[in-house]
Automatic annotation (TrEMBL):
Entry-linked Pfam families: Acetyltransf_3
Superkingdom classification of source: Bacteria
SUPFAM superfamilies recorded: Acyl-CoA N-acyltransferases (Nat) (SSF55729)
Molecular-function GO terms, alphabetical: acyltransferase activity, transferring groups other than amino-acyl groups
Protein name: GNAT family N-acetyltransferase
Domain N-acetyltransferase: from-to ranges: 9-106
Lineage: Bacteria, Bacillati, Actinomycetota, Actinomycetes, Kitasatosporales
């Protein structure tokens, strides 16, 4: 039996403290997109953030998960849900893939649709 969180190319898992270097790389990639610019953060800042995320429990329907390549075990992205309001039935989500891993089908999805 396979896990719901594991696909053909990637698996979603909790963020680990050693993921900080990948997240620092994602921040550099996002700077190049140009639509949102954050002030520079130190390596220690990314390290502390990853350590904090590794022990943080999900807040209801809000969570962040690392995207890990099955063939290499490398952290290649992150996916998360934010501002979930189950009462209103809405939420926001974010997906970040490292620049070297985009357009390779790692995050191709086949949504399940339920019609009544």
């Amino acid at each position: 039996m396979t896990s719901f969180w594991t696909g053909k190319r990637v698996r979603l898992r909790g963020i680990e403290p050693e993921d900080w270097t990948a997240f620092m790389g994602f921040a550099v990639d996002e700077e190049r997109l140009g639509d949102l610019l954050h002030p520079p953060r130190s390596a220690e800042g990314f390290c502390a953030w990853a350590k904090e995320q590794a022990v943080t429990k999900s807040d209801g329907d809000c969570f962040s998960l690392a995207v890990e390549a099955l063939d290499t075990g490398q952290t290649i992205g992150v996916v998360g849900s934010h501002y979930a309001d189950p009462r209103a039935g809405r939420f926001e989500y974010g997906i970040t893939m490292g620049a070297g891993h985009r357009r390779k089908g790692s995050f191709t999805c086949h949504p399940r649709r339920h019609h009544t």
